[in-house]
Design brief:
Largest sheet: 4 strands, antiparallel
Strand order of the largest sheet: 2-3-5-6
Strand content: 5-15%
CATH topology of the largest domain: Outer membrane efflux proteins (OEP)
Number of domains: 2
Structural class: alpha+beta
Number of strands: 6
CATH superfamily of the largest domain: Outer membrane efflux proteins (OEP)
Number of helices: 13
Shape: elongated
Helix content: 55-70%
Radius of gyration: 38 Å
Length: 485
């Protein structure tokens, strides 16, 4: 048909061109060192076991910890929200793909009307011989349309939607990593608080025993009243630490339940029996800083959003150019009877070549392009800053892990020495060669050392969790999240 020749030529030209306006995306280079500063010390750090990054929480050797992390990865509601955002982004990508394809509709109707004779038209028609006030009409049409993506605006839109979809997938991985790390961190905090609470309770018993001894001596006239009061005061100070630690323990247990997507108190019975603080495993195979670009999901999110903003520039530039569309209609209509609907006399067809060009709207288009470029520049700065912050996270975590280990080792030795010193001072007090102040001071310093040692052990394990999280451990990057188009 001669009327279709322009459309055919237009489609051919678009296929031959095969290009899209706007800048093609290139992943930016970020200069990074070949090794972390804290890597040598971290790799030499002793640990209970060696573990890889994929399921690092199993390296702590605590089955309950591993079980809680597994439950959190299945039940956590933050993770459910992130998964729902993937569904939304997938729908956006589907809409962008559909925009590149022809669309079609089938429209049909059957109408029955009754004409009033009180209107001017009805009066005229009623004066016609054999006029029938009843009327029927039938119509069935198939129409199709296609916007020819001659300058690539729709393809740029699809690139942006694809990048956003990939960012949402990486966002799920980032949330998964955060959930695993936060669950492990809370669990270690619980075990640390239980250990400190046990130390405090044991110290309370020790002080109560000392008070009984002093009261006995006072009853025999071998101790002064002020010594009884001093011992009572020291006991009260130790007892006062118990409610504070218990409050923190309750809050941590409630936080763990929420991480698991359950009401507070659900898993308290499993945690009621105190256990030792998990020992962090050896950290092996941490790789180089450049590996963070593919391992850290939050960096993948930032990079994919940069790619999306780059595509939006081309999408905005495409508004400079005319947009062509092809539409066609094929159908049948009759006002006589439904039986005549598919006869040759009732057939109807149309072909339309459409043009839309914002010829006098370039000022607004310029503003939209400038806005897209500004968003791309912002996304680039965010990506570069995210990379720097990621390496900072790793360096800080490695430093904290190594130094907390050293602190715990030192405090463990100091605690043993102070325990012996307290025993010696109490024996000396019983023999009358030392005063009560020495015993109370020894009790206080021993409590402080034991509590500090427990805190250091917990912080060492938490620092290891932070290191695994900073390195991007706990998930496996897929080809979809790493694709750059």
């Amino acid at each position: 048909m001669p009327s279709l020749r322009p459309a055919v030529l237009l489609v051919s030209a678009s296929l031959i061109a095969g290009c899209a306006v706007g800048p093609d995306y290139q992943r930016p280079d970020v200069p990074l060192s070949n090794r972390y500063m804290g890597q040598p010390s971290a790799e030499q750090r002793p640990g209970a076991t060696q573990v890889g990054l994929a399921d690092w929480w199993r390296g702590f050797g605590d089955p309950l910890l591993a079980d809680f992390v597994a439950k959190a990865l299945k039940q956590n509601l933050d993770l459910a929200q992130a998964s729902a955002r993937v569904t939304q982004a997938r729908a956006g990508l589907g809409a962008a793909n559909a925009a590149l394809l022809p669309s079609g509709n089938i429209n049909g109707q059957a109408a029955r009307s009754y004409q009033s004779i009180e209107t001017p038209l009805g009066q005229v028609l009623n004066s016609t011989p054999d006029y029938d006030r009843y009327g029927s009409s039938y119509e069935l049409n198939i129409d199709a349309s296609w916007e020819v993506d001659l300058f690539g605006g729709l393809r740029r839109g699809r690139e942006g939607a694809l990048a956003e979809y990939q960012a949402s997938e990486a966002g799920v991985a980032a949330t998964r990593l955060a959930v695993a790390a936060q669950t492990a961190d809370i669990y270690i905090t619980i075990r640390g608080l239980q250990t400190r609470l046990d130390i405090a309770n044991r110290q309370v018993k020790t002080q109560q025993g000392l008070l009984e001894k002093v009261q006995l001596l006072y009853g025999k006239g071998l101790a002064a009243n002020y010594q009884v009061r001093q011992t009572e005061g020291a006991l009260s100070q130790v007892q006062a630490t118990v409610p504070v630690l218990q409050t923190g323990l309750d809050a941590a247990m409630n936080a763990l339940d929420v991480m698991l997507g359950t009401p507070p108190g659900t898993h308290r019975s499993q945690l009621a029996i105190a256990a030792s603080i998990p020992v962090a495993p050896q950290l092996k195979g941490m790789g180089a800083p450049a590996d963070l670009l593919r391992r850290r999901p939050d960096l993948i999110v930032a990079e994919r959003r940069l790619a999306a903003s780059n595509a939006r520039i081309g999408e905005a530039i495409a508004e400079y150019y005319p947009k062509f569309s092809i539409s066609a209609l094929l159908g049948s209509a009759t006002a006589v009877s439904a039986g005549n609907l598919f006869t040759s006399g009732a057939s109807q067809s149309a072909g339309v070549l459409g043009l839309r060009w914002r010829l006098f709207d370039f000022g607004r288009i310029n503003a939209q392009i400038d806005q897209a470029k500004g968003q791309e520049a912002e996304s680039l700065a965010i990506y570069r800053q995210s990379v720097l912050r990621a390496t900072e996270d790793v360096e800080n975590a490695l430093s904290s892990m190594v130094n907390r280990d050293a602190q715990a080792t030192t405090l463990t030795g100091g605690e043993a020495s102070l325990t012996q010193a307290r025993q010696s001072s109490f024996i000396a007090y019983e023999k009358g060669t030392a005063n009560l102040i020495d015993v109370l001071h020894a009790d206080e310093t021993m409590l402080q050392a034991s509590d500090a040692r427990a805190q250091a052990q917990a912080e060492s394990a938490r620092a290891a969790v932070a290191a695994f999280r900073a390195l991007g451990g706990g998930w496996q990057p897929s080809d979809t999240t790493l694709t750059s188009r």
